[in-house]
Amino acid sequence: MSNIIAYCGLNCSDCPAYIATQNNDTNKLEEIAKKWSNEEMQFKANDILCDGCHSDDRIFKWCKECDIKSCARVKGLENCAYCKDYLCELLNIAFGKNIDPSAKQRLDEIRKNIELL
Q: Is the dihedral of CA 26, 32, 38, 41 positive or negative?
């Protein structure tokens, strides 16, 4: 399976919801939904069905509402590393939260390789 890099730099291919969806593993999806739920947000297995950030169909409920995704799609970008405004406020806020630290590293590496072209 090839890596699917989300607009924010997360690797969708490593996401438990993505993996469970691709494996049609309903039990795992239910387990993940329960684990990811809290007092503020309750998820069901159907809420976390996901074919990756770039999907138009099945995508984790929270990701559907992602401002980073919306911005990158409007700009027609593969991910935020390709943006002229890279490391904008939206990304900095995301990186300041519980987002996977490798997401920024991944985008930085992609951006570095773009600049070499």
A: negative
Whether the CB-CB separation of 57 and 49 falls below 8 Å is answered with no
> How many CB atoms are located within 10 Å of the residue 1 CB?
7
The CA R_g of the chain, rounded to the nearest whole Å, is 15
**What's the pLDDT tens digit per position in 30-58?**
999 999 999 988 999 999 999 999 998 89
Range of the domain at 25: 12-116
pTM listed for this prediction: 0.85
Residues 15, 20: Cα–Cα separation, whole Å: 9
Number of domains in the chain: 1
- Residue given tokens 């930085």 in the structure block: 108
Q: Which of 59, 48, 43, 47 is nearest to 4 (CA)?
A: 59
